[in-house]
């Protein structure tokens, strides 16, 4: 098995910690700061120990609850995948039904623009994206989805947080078919 990497960069806010940038380097990796020299080897001004400790505690808590949160979200994503395929005409659910991230589901609806569906779902109270995560801020078709061999237009990406409630996901599934129908009708599709 190969090395996982030499440097890890993260935001402690991603696992429920305080706003703190984290840089971890593997032992033996040479690094040099790109800021002016400072006596403190960590950074100019030093490390804010209470914030670093809060980030570490939040990471431990997130790791301890990860398996349960992932199982919960995997079940909800399974439900979304099933209901979207069954209840929305002319749709393609992307990705492997089993070998996938536990919290993300992506599907593409024929005859509509993904951004139009995202806007319609936003008005219904749902924060979803269009395209793949790496192209979410671009209006270009997702090269990731194209490489997967799935539709790149009419795409919706739903990412469930660890504390998502089943009722919210079921409400999304209830609203989605009508939202797609409304967008298609507005576009004359």
Task: Describe the model.
This protein is α+β, with helices and mostly antiparallel strands. Helices cover 40% and strands 13% of the residues. The chain is built from four helices and five strands, in the order ββαββααβα. It has helices spanning 49-87, 114-123, 143-148, 166-186, and strands spanning 7-11, 21-25, 91-93, 104-109, 155-159. It has a three-stranded antiparallel β-sheet. Helix 1 (49-87) packs across helix 4 (166-186). The radius of gyration is 21 Å and the shape is elongated. Mean pLDDT is 84; it is low at 132-138.
Give a brief description.
The protein is of the alpha+beta class. 40% of the residues lie in helices and 13% in strands.
Topology:
Elements: E1 7-11, E2 21-25, H1 49-87, E3 91-93, E4 104-109, H2 114-123, H3 143-148, E5 155-159, H4 166-186
Antiparallel strand pairs: 1-2, 3-4, 4-5
Helix pairs in contact: 1-4, 2-4
Q: What features would you highlight for this structure?
A:
189 residues; alpha+beta; 3-stranded antiparallel sheet; two-stranded antiparallel sheet; 4 helices; elongated
Main sheet characteristics: 3 strands, antiparallel
Count of separate DSSP helical elements: 4
Query: Could you tell me the strand content as a percent range?
Result: 5-15%
Structural class: alpha+beta
Distance between the termini: 50 Å
Order of secondary-structure elements: EEHEEHHEH
Helix content range: 40-55%
Number of strands: 5
The rounded Rg comes to 21 Å
Global outline: elongated
> What integer is the average pLDDT?
84
Given as residue ranges, the uncertain stretches (5+ residues, pLDDT < 50) are 132-138
């Amino acid at each position: 098995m190969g090395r996982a990497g030499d440097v890890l960069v993260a935001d402690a806010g991603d696992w429920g910690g305080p706003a703190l940038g984290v840089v971890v380097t593997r032992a033996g990796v040479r690094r040099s700061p790109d800021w002016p020299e400072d006596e403190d080897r960590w950074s100019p001004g030093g490390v804010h120990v209470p914030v670093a400790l809060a980030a570490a505690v939040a990471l431990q808590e997130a790791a301890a609850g990860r398996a349960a949160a992932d199982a919960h979200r995997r079940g909800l994503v399974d439900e979304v995948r099933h209901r979207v395929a069954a209840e929305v005409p002319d749709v393609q659910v992307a990705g492997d039904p089993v070998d996938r991230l536990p919290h993300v589901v992506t599907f593409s609806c024929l005859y509509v623009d993904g951004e139009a569906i995202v806007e319609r779902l936003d008005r219904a109270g749902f924060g979803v994206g269009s395209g793949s995560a790496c192209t979410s801020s671009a209006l270009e078709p997702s090269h990731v989805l194209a490489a997967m061999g799935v539709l790149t237009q009419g795409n919706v990406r739903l990412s469930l947080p660890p504390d998502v409630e089943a009722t919210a996901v079921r409400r999304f599934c209830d609203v989605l078919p009508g939202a797609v129908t409304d967008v298609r009708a507005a576009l004359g599709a």
